[in-house]
Predict the 3D structure of the following.
Amino acid sequence: MTKGFMSLADMEQYLAPCVQTKGTVKILDRAKLRGEPIDRLVYNAVFNESQEVRGTARALIKEIALAAGAVPASIQGLYEAMGRGEVKGFTVPAVNIRGMTYDVARALIRAALKNNAPSFIFEIAKSEMGYTLQEPAEYAAVLLAAAIKEGYEGPVCIQGDHFQFNAKNFKADPVKEADGIRKLIKKAVAAGFYNIDIDSSTLVEMEHATLDEQQRHNYEQAAAMTAYIREVEPKGVTVSVGGEIGEVGGHNSTVEELRAYMDGYSRVLKKGIKGISKISVQTGTSHGGVVLPDGSIAKVKLDFDTLEKISKAARAEYGMSGAVQHGASTLPDDAFDHFPKCTAAEVHLATGFQNMTFDHPQFPLEFKKKMAEWLHRECAGEKKAGETEEQFIYKTRKKGYGPLKKDLWLMAEGPRNAIAKSLEDKFDFLFKKLNVVNTRPHVNKHVQLAPVKPDLRAEIAAAADSKKPVEKDDNPRAD
């Protein structure tokens, strides 16, 4: 699994018994492929020192995934059916994977197969791509390799979460900030991200007298980015686009804010361009949860009434699937069955799984020590006056995923499998709570599969990003 290929010829020779790599890529022996070969191929797609080998490995994984029936897809059709009232009663889980990505994705897919529930989304936020060292092309390849490994067939919905505007940078140079979001969109869509959440809610200006003025920059930029997505999406694919009206962690959103945003968005979006399919709102959560001095997480009072009102208005008045709840993974277990009851379309989950990983009894102590040393050295400036050690570590440890990336991948089989099993059990629990069990018929009917052949040269070019310094995000948000 961990052995690097010395060259393209070495990789092709190794794969020859199970995959035809010359000309049209074909799977010759599926059972053999799902053993060590796919493990070794995905390792090289992430860690091989050669840009050419990394990029070629990623392209091969994407070609093999298409041949195996695991197809990057947009959830647009399912959300349109929700908007029409044809599909209801469940909430789609969207899971951010920050580390151990291959193992965590496999655990999620196993839970999906167990529950006959392909109605799930893999996602990663703009900020997460930075501190976890996972650019879009790599992330998509690892997820698709996980699908191949587990024998999954169907749509693989990959989402760009919180493609977020920096308010300070936007005020200084709005054109430059918007261009940066466009570049990220283009890179993500090319990688197979056919679901994009545009987060321009950071541009809301509450000091204005009217809701329209408050939301103006938000809806104008969301409309501009939607139009750009339609320009770069592949033929046959309608990328599912999401908008956001409330700063998660700020004041709770209102139906009136939804209307101000959507009415403005509809005015400025050019006619004939398909708009957003969902709306993210604030109902009382915060990204990552609120950590107490002893390191535990404060209980959150979620406003499910607001979530339900906005969801219903989004469908009835604008034909969207409904509202999206962010920052939910640290909620108590008994909260999750409320999401389908209040007709939320989607719920975003991240930090809870990170906590399960780092706090697992079998998570290696040497990794914890290495991570803490790195955090104290590189993130010391983030420790606030009066903050306990537990609060500092909890707040910053997500940034340990980058420096620990290879360590986590090469973790001993025993602890790695134990952590993955705990996560799989949690995913299984959430699938049931969110009522997505046996949703395959809905997905088969409404989610269109449009296989897009990967561009080898583009994959090799994108592999250069693995070695580039990561741009710092001054206002990171992820769930």
User: Anything to note?
Assistant: Residues 105 and 143 are 6 Å apart (CA to CA). Residues 211-232 form the longest helix (22 residues).
